[in-house]
Design a protein that fits this description.
The chain is α/β, with parallel strands linked by helices. It contains 13 helices and 12 strands. Helices cover about 40% and strands about 15% of the residues. The strands form 3 sheets. The chain has a 7-stranded mixed β-sheet, with helices on both faces. Strands 9-10-12 form a 3-stranded antiparallel β-sheet. A two-stranded parallel sheet has the order 1-11. The relative contact order is 0.16. The structure holds pyridoxal-5'-phosphate. Pyridoxal-5'-phosphate binds next to helix 3.
Length: about 375
């Protein structure tokens, strides 16, 4: 099998599984219990928390362990204490865990402004500056697009926002950034930063919300008062420790992983260019993601045809739909044909890719489907 959908999720590394195994089989104690083995587990969790904060250089922030980035993004919206008449800004490129959340608040009378994307996939900062006013309570703009890999200049966006309204809360979804590109929360100036373990070879079911120390967090879950009362429910210790291990490995190898994946992405583009297949690249930024639009073919049909060759990719547009349902590519100004012909391939730094052969299979599959 050739797995080319690492933006969706990644395989757990052996070292991560080993660490988790320890906390599932041996140090399995409830981190809130008071006997010595449980106190050791609590210490491990708190150490992981502090080290994760250090990894993203967040000296004015705290870290809340949550079940996933979706929960973190929802917690941010809840914590912004939005009321009817308030205004929030999100980009057109946001992941559904932000975009759909904004829509829910819109149903409750909150004004939601959606910032345009440039053809490159980054947000249109001029449009953002136009839409930003003193009424805006929350801005949420992702750091790296999960669709195209486009990288937003969060520091600049944060500066624009805070200049207009120093009290505005600025959040960035860092799910496709953390462990892959440099992140310095202090430098970005954001109030919230979101991470998810399963995008960096950690387990599913664990993520983190990094939030500025003086911000009031509104819990989504009430109960036993874990996580300082901000997220009740017995801590997912194996998940937390697996996340921490995956993060350590990602940070240690970040530079070499980046360079390796950059080469792979370039090689894919070169091979596609040599193959005679007509295609275009959507967006440019993080090398871990390559969004392509193939001419005269539906992405979904190609996805299933490639699956027969055990090549796994993803696509944003649904085959059954007459209309494009990829709001992000549409927001970038891509044509209907480009949206429908979209396939996203995404890499990791651990697999070896026989790029020539993979592109050959792509090309012959496309030719066959067109024929
Ligand atoms: N944000 C981005 C940019 C993502 O790529 C994803 C996952 O696809 C999420 C949020 C949601 O992550 P989780 O699966 O941890 O909820």
């Amino acid at each position: 099998m050739i797995y080319l959908d690492n933006a969706a999720t990644t395989q757990c590394l052996d070292g991560v599984v080993d660490v988790m195994n320890n906390y599932l089989k041996h140090d399995y104690f409830n981190a809130s219990s008071v006997y010595a083995p449980a106190v050791k587990v609590r210490r491990d969790v708190e150490n992981a928390r502090n080290e994760l904060l250090d990894m993203v250089f967040a000296s004015n922030h705290k870290l809340l362990f949550v079940s996933c980035a979706t929960e973190a993004n929802n917690t941010i919206f809840e914590s912004a204490t939005l009321r009817s008449g308030d205004k929030i800004i999100v980009s057109a490129g946001e992941h559904p865990s932000v975009f759909e959340c904004a829509k829910q608040f819109q149903n409750n009378g909150v004004e939601v402004c959606v910032v345009d994307l440039l053809p490159s996939g980054e947000i249109d900062e001029e449009d953002f500056a136009r839409k930003m006013d003193r009424r805006v309570k929350l801005v949420s703009v992702m750091m790296v697009s999960n669709e195209t890999g486009a990288v937003n200049n969060i520091k600049r966006i944060c500066k624009i926002a805070k200049k207009v309204n120093p009290r505005v809360l600025v959040a960035t979804d860092g799910v496709q950034a953390f462990g892959k590109i440099d992140v310095c929360v202090d430098d970005l100036g954001v109030d919230f930063f979101v991470m998810s373990a399963h995008k960096i070879h950690g387990p599913k079911g664990i993520g983190a919300l990094v939030y500025r120390k003086d911000i009031h967090i509104s819990p989504l879950l009430w109960g036993g008062g874990q996580e300082n009362g901000l997220r009740s429910g017995t801590e997912n210790v194996a998940g937390i420790m697996g996340f921490f291990e995956a993060a350590k490995l990602s940070m240690k190898n970040q530079k070499s992983n980046f360079e390796k994946v950059q080469k792979i992405r370039d090689e894919f583009i070169d091979e596609f260019q040599n193959s005679g297949v007509k295609f275009s690249v959507n967006g440019n930024g993080s090398p871990f993601i390559l969004s392509l639009s193939f001419d005269g073919i539906r992405g979904e049909v190609l996805l299933h045809a490639l699956e027969e060759h055990e090549i796994l990719v993803s696509t944003g547009s649904a085959c059954s739909s007459k209309h494009s349902d990829n709001r992000i590519l549409s927001a970038m100004g891509k044509s209907q044909a480009e949206v429908l012909g979209n396939v996203r391939i995404s890499f990791n730094a651990h697999d070896a890719y026989d790029v020539k052969n993979i592109v050959k299979i792509f090309a012959s599959t496309i030719e066959k489907l067109k024929g």
